[in-house]
Recover the amino acids of this structure.
């Protein structure tokens, strides 16, 4: 996927002499000390990352770690003290006023934690507000707004006053309003953090659903690691104004960059994130259909196992043969084909471990991981158990 947003060495120091203060900062600094010495606050220090077109990029960190400051740099609500931000290859820090206004009206939209809706207007007026500001006619903007309201599941509530809505519904309005302008980029700053857990889960699901259809580029901030791993294609972890790791949830779980990240991810249900790809291995015992049962037996003995995985000549997975049947087939002079066990469970490499557990419980054999019929690896019960530890 092409890069949509490229952030290079962005720092934001709050205070009148930000650049001067930035020059005095080494790679290691103490925010508190900087504050006492200079009266300046380090919001973000030296952030570098890119966001790909169509991905959900999550920024996570504790309160005060610089998440809001960073996301607000992406539409220049905060102007970085140093560094560059390219969107579609253009450095927006160099934009004129008009270009910047266009960027905010057309290309980027934002959803806020506190909804930031117009409290005295009804749903449809809130959703169509940005379109009206953009100069679209009342009928046009109403029509687009109605479509968005339907998309976020609020049909029938068009004329309800905002105050009459629950938190979850308000945020649906916030989402509809942001989407109404059909932006390419959606910035969501703790958009779900104020919601009750169940409503929140609902909204996470809704967002993933919408994203399937809309394929926006989304930067999503949260302080909840479960939420980050659930919805993020990639996740950036912030600590004390700095980004300490960027990676897919699986990369972060399997190789945390440092002790801080390790502590941050303890308690995460790994099985929801880890895919079978990360726990599969090559079958020790692999034979081809045209190999006879004698060869299969030899392979099993050499590997000290009691079953063999069987492929055809095109390396497509055909099934398993077990030791007992193989011995019998040698006696009866039967080909491997006649003793193939076909009831081996096959899964795709992206299947999560949590989805695998119930399948593994039912299956007497290891599970085959296949892609377009080809065997990529197998997952044994002990590998699953190991990943749960
Ligand atoms: N407008 C501002 N002026 C001065 N300091 C600010 C401003 N906005 C944020 N900060 C400071 O920058 C740091 C990062 O804040 P913020 O980006 O809001 O963190 P987060 O969103 O991760 O909770 C904090 O120390 C905060 O107090
Ligand atoms: Mg914040």
């Amino acid at each position: 996927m092409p890069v949509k947003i490229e952030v290079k060495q962005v720092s934001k120091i709050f205070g009148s002499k930000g650049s001067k203060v930035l020059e005095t900062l080494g790679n290691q600094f103490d925010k508190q000390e900087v504050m006492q010495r200079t009266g300046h606050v380090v919001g973000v220090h030296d952030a570098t990352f890119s966001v790909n077109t169509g991905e959900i990029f999550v920024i996570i960190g504790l309160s005060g770690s610089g998440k809001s400051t960073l996301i607000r740099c992406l539409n220049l609500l905060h102007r970085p003290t140093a560094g560059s931000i390219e969107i579609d290859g253009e450095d927006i820090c160099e934009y004129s006023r008009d270009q910047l206004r266009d960027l905010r009206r057309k290309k980027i939209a934002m959803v806020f934690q506190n909804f930031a809706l117009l409290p005295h207007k009804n749903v449809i007026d809130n959703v169509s507000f940005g379109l009206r500001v953009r100069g679209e006619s009342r009928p046009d903007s109403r029509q687009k707004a109605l479509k968005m309201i339907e998309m976020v599941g609020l049909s029938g509530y068009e004329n309800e006053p905002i105050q009459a809505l629950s938190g979850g519904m308000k945020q649906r309005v916030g989402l509809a309003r942001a989407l109404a302008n059909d932006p390419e980029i959606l910035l969501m700053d703790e958009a779900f953090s104020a919601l009750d857990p169940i409503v929140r889960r609902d909204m996470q699901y809704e967002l993933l659903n919408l994203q399937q259809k809309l394929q926006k580029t989304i930067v999503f901030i949260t302080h909840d690691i479960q939420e980050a791993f659930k919805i993020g294609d990639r996740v950036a972890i912030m600590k004390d104004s700095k980004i300490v790791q960027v990676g897919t949830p699986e990369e972060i779980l399997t190789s945390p960059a440092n002790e801080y990240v390790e502590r941050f991810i303890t308690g995460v249900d790994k099985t929801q994130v880890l895919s079978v790809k990360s726990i599969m291995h090559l079958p020790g015992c692999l034979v081809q259909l045209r190999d006879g049962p004698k060869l299969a037996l030899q392979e099993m003995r050499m590997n000290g196992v009691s079953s063999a995985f069987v492929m055809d000549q095109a390396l497509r997975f055909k099934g398993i043969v077990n030791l007992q049947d193989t011995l019998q087939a040698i006696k009866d002079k039967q080909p491997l084909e006649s003793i193939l066990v076909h009831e081996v469970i096959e899964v795709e490499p992206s299947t999560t471990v949590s989805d695998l557990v119930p399948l593994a419980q039912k299956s007497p054999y290891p599970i085959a991981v296949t892609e377009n019929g080809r065997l990529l690896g197998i997952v044994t019960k002990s590998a699953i158990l190991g990943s749960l530890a």
Notes: The pocket of adenosine-5'-diphosphate (ligand 1) is lined by residues 14, 41, 43, 61, 63-69 (CB under 6 Å).
